[in-house]
Amino acid sequence: MSLFKRGNIWWVRFSTPGGQQIRRSAKTADKRLAQEYHDQLKASYWRVSKLGERPRRMWEEAVERWLMEKQGEKVNLNEDVGHLRRVHPHLYGRYLDEIDRDVLDDLTKSRLSDGVSNATVNRMLEIVRAILRRAEREWDWLERAPHVRMLPQAKRRIRWLTKEEANHLLAELPDHLAAMARFTLATGLREANVVKLDWSQVDLARRCAWIHADQAKTRKAIPVPLNAEAVLVLRQQEGKHPDRVFTYKGKPVTKANNHAWRKALVRAGIEDFRWHDLRHTWASWHVQQGTPLHVLQELGGCSDYEMVRRYAHLSVEHLAKYADDLSEIRLVSTNLTQSEI
After folding, report:
1. Are the CB atoms for 104 and 148 separated by under 8 Å?
2. How far apart are CA 186 and CA 231, in angstroms?
């Protein structure tokens, strides 16, 4: 039977010329429209098989392949999967070549109506754009990917703490979180790398640690030199667990950005601050003490130079000489003028 019902919705079912079994929702309660959808779909498979036309691919096929390929490229896909769940009701069941500017604009309006920020909508659209571009450029599933229009958003300022603020926060944190925060401020490592740090990745004798390539956001191994503060923190964790460095009540910590962290921020009177901003604080302190940006890029395991350029405004010492030179020129010019008068 080529048409059947599930609830009030008609579904189509048939075999392609190559023997593939197709079962798909027609997304309608109207049998006439369902039959029309069935005939068009079956004809498209016939043209692919007999005339060599490019097969039309569905959005869900592209998502499945993209997620499978990304498993080997990204450390954590949970955030991306969350955005894709929001996209699902809008794009599920659509052919890739049906996803045009109007469809994407409707998706954008729908997410904005949920009360989310432009930045959140843009993150979702970035994932949609990445999937469509890969379908065009790598998989040859799409003739041309549509332009994805991003929403305007203000550039977020770098949020960092002064040494005094940092010490105040550390004093309010529980011991296990304070240790992890101190280690982050000493090394600049991301939360996931601190939480999952194993003793097998630490060499206290050589005062170094390392993040394996498959643990790093950029998929490149990160060497981590340990300063005196970082070594002290690690020494205080010795003997607490055979594998993991940071623990709570004898068990490995699973998350640092938790309820206890947020309560400590309130007690310390620190607002608009995330755990990741500890990394920004580390980078800001480095730049302010004169660490060159290219060195900071390597220390932080940043993928490109532009990532560390965000901190350049915090260091003006290298510009002071040029400012003084201009001042001296003005003084000479003034003296000459006065002498001439």
Report:
1. yes
2. 9
Q: By three-state DSSP, how is residue 101 classified?
A: helix
Q: Is it the case that residue 192 has pLDDT exceeding 80?
A: yes
* Nearest one of 140, 126, 66 to 97, comparing CA atoms: 140
Cα 130 to chain centroid distance, Å, stands at: 13
Which pLDDT does position 336 carry in this prediction?
Answer: 44
C-alpha–C-alpha distance, residues 260 and 182, integer Å: 16
CB–CB of 313/324 below 8 Å? no
Q: φ, ψ for residue 336 (rounded to 5)?
A: -60, -40
Question: Is residue 193 scored above 80 in pLDDT?
Answer: yes
- Which pTM value belongs to this model? 0.60
Angle, nearest 10°, between helix axes 277-288 and 175-187?
A: 40
- For residues 131 and 87, the answer to whether their CB atoms sit within 8 Å is no
Buried b (16+ CB within 10 A) or exposed e, 276-308: ebbbbbbbbbbbeeebebeebbebbbbeeeebb
Own/partner pairs, 142-148, CB within 8 angstroms, 24+ separation: 142/57, 142/96, 142/97, 143/54, 143/97, 146/99, 146/100, 146/101, 146/104, 147/101, 148/104
Average pLDDT for the chain? 85
- Within 8 A by CB and 6+ apart from 102, the residues are none
Which tokens in the block code for residue 296?
């900071």
Q: How far apart are CA 283 and CA 296, in angstroms?
A: 7
